[in-house]
Amino acid sequence: MLVLSRKVGEVIAIGDQISVTVVEVKGGTVRLGITAPQDMTIYRQEIYLKVQQENKQAADWNLDDLERIAALAGTGEKE
Fold first, then answer.
1. In sequence order, what are the beta bridge partners of 24?
2. What residues are paired with 60 via a beta bridge?
3. Positive or negative torsion for Cα 51, 46, 29, 15
4. Do the Cβ atoms of 20 and 11 come closer than 8 Å?
5. Is it the case that residue 12 has pLDDT exceeding 70?
6. Residue 31 · residue 23 · CB < 8 Å
7. In sequence order, what E strands does the chain have?
8. Cα separation of 63 and 51, whole Å?
9. In this structure, are residues 30 and 24 in contact, taking their beta carbons and an 8 Å threshold?
10. For 3, phi and psi rounded to 5 degrees?
């Protein structure tokens, strides 16, 4: 891990397309501004981990469940 000290208004460059600016330091909180290409998704880590967990759960399906849903859709029955 690279650890840097920056003051308000100072910038960290990550490659050619990403920059992180220290916007504000107040108490124990640091506000950062991030400039990156629009097609790049940026999450706080706790949100990123939650998205990964939900994606894993969505991908964890059972063929029996799919066949049951298909059967219900084909007959128009409701459970």
1. 31
2. none
3. negative
4. yes
5. yes
6. yes
7. 11-14, 18-26, 29-35
8. 23
9. yes
10. -115, 125
Token readout for 31 is: 């506000």
Tokens of 69: 């849903």
Q: What pTM value is reported for the model? A: 0.67
Give domain limits for the chain: 1-38, 43-79
**C-alpha distance across the termini of the chain, in Å:** 53
- Tokens 């910038």 appear where? 11
Laid out side by side, the sheet with 29-35 consists of: 11-14, 18-26, 29-35
How far apart CA 79 and CA 74 sit, in angstroms, is 13
Token pair belonging to 9 = 């208004």
**Exposed/middle/buried for 28, CB within 10 Å: 0-12, 13-18, 19+?**
exposed
Residue 76: pLDDT band by 50, 70, 90 thresholds? low
